[in-house]
């Protein structure tokens, strides 16, 4: 199986984004995408030129199967790091490799000095992705989220430029 590649997300990717959101209920927390119009709005928000987001598509056989993003806090040169993968393409290590590649880029060419992310405690695969991408656990935000009537802790991670580099193989990141 060939590796996927990474490039910037584009508005033309909206149908693939819609496919990922409609495939799995756990995508609901990633954004308001329920039809093509809302998928276009979601992608437009992430790709706005003057906006805070840097969104990278994970492309496999011409189709966007996942997204890794960094939402930039330019004043502090920090980035909030996030990711999702279409349910049919999970468990292949692609999100981990994509996240490691984009985190390297963000702390290098991207000019950021701190990346941060958080995941609810009952989403362990997100924690695996974070650690594989070189993030270090900083703490536990107690009772942070209210999901389906239950208050959940969130595990907080960060990656700084001097942290040990991840060992996973990186994906190809193209400039366009
Ligand atoms: C979280 C998510 C991005 C992981 O994507 P993925 O493509 O499966 O990630 P990878 O294939 O790189 O696997 C990451 C790790 O999770 C593990 N994993 C996969 N499903 C798991 C599960 N249900 N429980 C525990 N671990 C799991 C994998 O074994 C792998 O661990 P390893 O490297 O230690 O073997 C994906 O499940 C997703 O898109 N979920 C919905 C959106 C979301 O929750 N995003 C994160 C918000 S904080």
Task: Write structural notes for this entry.
With 176 residues, the protein is of the alpha+beta class. Helix content is 26%, strand content 35%. The chain has four helices and eight strands, in the order βααβββαβαβββ. An eight-stranded mixed sheet has the order 6-7-5-4-3-2-1-8, with helices on both faces. α1 crosses α2 (36-47). The longest helix has 14 residues, at 94-107. The protein is globular and about 40 Å long. 35% of the residues are buried. Bound molecules: coenzyme A. Coenzyme A binds next to β4, α3 and α4. Coenzyme A is lined by residues 26-27, 30, 83-85, 90-96, 119, 123-126, 128-129, 132.
Annotation keywords:
single chain; 176 residues; alpha+beta; Aminopeptidase; eight-stranded mixed beta sheet; 35% strand; globular; binds coenzyme A
Q: Any chance you could write out the topology, listing elements then pairs?
A:
Layout: E1 5-8, H1 14-23, H2 36-47, E2 53-60, E3 63-73, E4 78-85, H3 94-107, E5 114-120, H4 124-132, E6 136-147, E7 150-159, E8 172-173
Parallel strand pairs: 1-8, 4-5
Antiparallel strand pairs: 1-2, 2-3, 3-4, 5-7, 6-7
Helix pairs in contact: 1-2, 3-4
The protein binds coenzyme A.
């Amino acid at each position: 199986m060939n590796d996927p590649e990474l490039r910037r997300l584009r508005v033309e990717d909206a149908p693939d984004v819609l496919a990922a959101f409609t495939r799995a209920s756990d995508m609901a927390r990633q954004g308001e995408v329920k039809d093509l119009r809302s998928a276009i709005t979601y992608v437009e928000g992430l790709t706005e030129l003057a906006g805070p987001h840097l969104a990278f598509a994970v492309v496999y056989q011409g189709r966007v199967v996942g997204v890794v993003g960094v939402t930039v806090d330019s004043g502090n040169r920090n980035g909030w790091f996030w990711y999702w993968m279409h349910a049919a393409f999970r468990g292949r290590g692609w999100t981990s490799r994509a996240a490691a590649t984009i985190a390297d880029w963000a702390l290098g060419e991207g000019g950021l000095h701190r990346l941060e992310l958080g995941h609810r405690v009952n989403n362990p695969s997100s924690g695996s992705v974070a650690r594989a991408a070189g993030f270090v656990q900083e703490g536990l935000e107690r009772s942070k989220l209210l999901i389906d009537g239950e208050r959940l802790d969130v595990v907080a991670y960060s990656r700084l430029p001097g942290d040990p580099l991840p060992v996973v193989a990186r994906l190809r990141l193209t400039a366009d």
